[in-house]
UniProtKB/TrEMBL annotation:
The keyword Hydrolase does not apply. It comes from the Bacteria. Residues 7-215 form the FAD/NAD(P)-binding domain. Keywords: Oxidoreductase. One of its GO terms (molecular function) is monooxygenase activity. Pfam families: Pyr_redox_2. The lineage of its organism: Bacteria, Bacillati, Actinomycetota, Actinomycetes, Streptosporangiales. This is FAD-dependent oxidoreductase. PANTHER family: FLAVIN-BINDING MONOOXYGENASE-LIKE PROTEIN (AFU_ORTHOLOGUE AFUA_4G09220), FLAVIN-CONTAINING MONOOXYGENASE.
Length: 401
């Protein structure tokens, strides 16, 4: 069986970017997954990205493939990027820069004497020198333990819903205080549901209008994570972030761009959304087919009854939630808690096994939680893989736009 240079598992922003950079460097690459599938199927209709248009570009190996190139009329600072425009951009990028995506999934990734075997859902086994795991955030959806006593029909993660209109005329508890929670609550209200937002914070935070934002210094730069000198470092120099002690990196990832809503959402968050701020969920149970959520608030305990509970509580990287990794391979990986320990090329402790996206945040900092990190990750890992495996450069196939 012929061995190829690389298999990229996942066809979201990080997978597409990695495959595009590998292809441009002449590495024979197979891209496994449906382009932008998670964004198409697990983000709610009506959603907008929180990132600015210039920071919503995938990592391109050539000019002319950035988001503003695709949608120049929607690329001004402060323009919210609609979900459907971003997913269409991702597919446009895939057609022009990446190898053809294979609409299947990787069932098993395991090492062999020549590199790795990747077994696909089609039954095919692919032998490859390198594997890039770019599975996105989907496998890492986090539902707090306090909600786990609820049966599946009564509780879900915010990423489980494409059409929030299914909750029309129903009572829904949304747990969280970040953009996902606030936007989910607003979209529920706009679809005719009765949402209650439960958040531990005593005050909701909202980002400022971009042209009004600024740090103490007038010249604080605007960058992929916002505005300011410190966040500029995390945004534009993730290689420097990796050199910091792990505890420092962990704190930076946890606190940079904490829970807050986009400025353009604030006016839509109104009295249609009931709020319980300063309330911590302590437990939840089913009662007569409905969910009962118990909280502890500033005035004591309280209970909320609803038809459904949506946990808009983010994503927590965990290698054990990537079932395609063979158990022995997964167990042997060096970790930062649940995340793989990565070297400066995004390579894990298993030679020629690379991780990109949220799984890399523990090593390279908070920018790996965002689309803006795709170019740094893709270019760096592609350079490393290409140094080991080279082939003809297929740049003549790329569409220059």
């Amino acid at each position: 069986m012929t061995r190829i240079g690389a298999v990229v598992v996942g066809a979201g922003p990080y997978g597409l970017s990695a495959a595009a950079h590998l292809r441009e460097r002449g590495v024979e690459t197979r891209l496994i997954g449906t382009p932008m599938q998670f964004w198409d199927e697990h983000m709610p209709v009506g959603m907008c990205l929180k990132s600015e248009p210039f920071a919503s570009s995938l990592g391109a190996p050539l000019p002319g493939l950035a988001f503003p190139d695709y949608a120049p009329d929607a690329a001004a600072i402060g323009d919210p990027v609609p979900l459907e425009v971003f997913t269409a951009y991702g597919r446009w990028f895939a057609e022009r820069a990446a190898p053809p995506a294979e609409v299947t999934r990787a069932e098993r990734i395991e090492p062999d004497h020549t590199g790795y075997r990747v077994v696909l859902a089609t039954g095919e086994t692919v032998r490859t020198a390198s594997v890039v795991v770019a599975v996105g955030v989907g496998p890492f959806a986090h539902i707090p333990g306090e909600l786990m006593d609820l049966p599946a029909p009564l509780v879900s993660h915010s990423s489980d819903h494409r059409d929030l209109g299914a909750f029309r005329d129903r009572d829904v508890v949304v747990v969280g205080a970040g953009q996902s929670a606030l936007e989910t609550a607003v979209l529920l209200a706009e679809q005719g549901a009765r949402p209650t937002l439960v958040a531990r914070t005593s005050r909701l935070m909202w980002n400022t209008v971009p042209h009004e934002a600024g740090g103490r210094l007038p010249s604080a730069p605007l960058h992929g994570l916002g505005r300011g000198w410190r966040t500029w470092l995390w945004s534009e120099r993730p290689a420097t972030t990796r050199l910091l002690p792990y505890r420092t990196r962990r704190r930076i990832v946890a606190t940079t761009l904490g829970p807050a809503g986009a400025w353009w959402l604030r006016d839509r968050f109104d009295e249609r959304v009931r709020t319980l701020l300063g309330h911590r969920v302590t437990r939840a149970r089913e009662d007569a087919g409905r969910a009962v959520v118990f909280t502890q608030g500033p005035d004591g305990p309280e209970r909320v009854t609803a038809d459904h509970v949506i946990a808009a509580t983010g994503f927590v990287p965990d290698l054990d939630r990537i079932p395609a990794l063979a158990p022995a391979l997964r167990a042997g990986l060096a970790r930062w808690n649940g995340s793989p320990r990565l070297d400066r090329t995004f390579q894990s402790s298993a030679p020629d096994l690379y991780f990109a996206g949220l799984a890399a945040a523990a090593s390279f900092g908070p920018v790996m939680r965002f689309v803006h990190g795709t170019d740094f990750a893709a270019s760096r890992l592609a350079r490393a893989i290409a140094s080991r495996t080279r082939g003809p450069r297929p740049t003549d196939h790329l569409t220059h736009v």
